[in-house]
Description:
Blueprint: H1 3-21, H2 24-37, H3 41-46, E1 52-59, E2 62-67, E3 77-78, H4 83-93, E4 102-108, E5 114-121, H5 128-139, E6 147-153, E7 162-171, H6 172-184, E8 191-196, E9 199-200, H7 217-288, H8 292-302, E10 307-314, E11 319-326, H9 332-337, E12 342-347, E13 352-354, E14 359-368
Parallel strand pairs: 1-4, 4-8
Antiparallel strand pairs: 1-2, 2-3, 5-7, 6-7, 8-9, 10-11, 11-14, 12-14, 13-14
Amino acid sequence: MNSATQTLRPQLDRARRAWRGSPLPGFLAWWWSELRALLPARWQVFFSGGNVWCLLHHQDGQWSVRRSGQSQTSAPWNDALDAPEQQALLNAAVADVDRQDLRLALCLPQEAVLRRRLLLPEAARDNLRQIGTFEMDRQTPFRVDQVYYDLREVPGPAPAGRIAAELVVAPRAAVDANLEHLRNAGIAIDAVDLCDGTARLGVNLLPPEMARAHRDPRRRLNLALAVAAGLLLVLCFGQYLHNRQEALAAMQTQVDDMRADAQKIGQLRKQLEESTGAAGFLAKRKTDSVAVVDVLQDLTARIPDDTWLERFTVDSSGRVGIQGQSAKASSLIDILQSSKMLTGANFQGVIQRDPATNKERFYMDAQLRNPTSGKPASASSTKGAAQ
């Protein structure tokens, strides 16, 4: 055991105790047993991995072994046999257990151990074995170097801020002989425990330096599988993010296309509104305008036969200019006042008599009138003339 392992051991022991004290191990064990029960019988054997504890019993010079939790024991063998024979008998008794999962515990009888129940502060949970060293002189008649011991947390009621624990002590004299015999027989054990019914109690009286180290060949495979699972999980997350980015890019493209279509529709709507406005303007202009032909027809119907026009103009503002000759020009104002096409008729300048025709030459202007509204209107033709 190197220094790094010694430094990490307290943290690892603390993590193990916290894990065992939580309800998760029991839940996972129940969940796994329920799942395994659904499998075929062959598959149940294949998936029944994990540590399998087998308990060694020594009584009256006879050794026997049985699986923890089962009452059936193997055929006993005498401790007088030589080491190869004892190893062969033990291997035959545990032949149905995978060597990677096999764990051996020397099971002591109840009368060979001393058990004391303690109430300890919660802070002692992380270093129970050291607390057992301090409590040894107070709780037992032994010194620490005279016993094998272990201190475990037990379920049960305890005051607030304290935990219930049990100190299990076995004199070295009662255990060393069996350990020495097993050592000489070439049988390595993983724990010294005592039986609680058909199962082991769950303590290990062996000190940490005497614990057997196990090399788990499946640990490397499990580690590789865990790394592979982690990589696959990362790849799944990466693929998920990639798919989301592609979906987002596709949606962005659709949004850009729709925005371009919306801009085109806006431009078309604007053009339509402009065209509609222009068409409405032209229609309104046409409605509000008076045709020059209609004005000429109205003048023709109203002016007397002794009057003719030499010039007739209409500008874009609907201003009408009339120049001509009449036998009696002053009467034209009264005649045009009743016109529905013209309003505001008035002479410009003075009326002069033409010596050649002996008629009065005049020039007058007026404003076109909208026949529907009666308001001033523009002409549909910007300019008109008559002579």
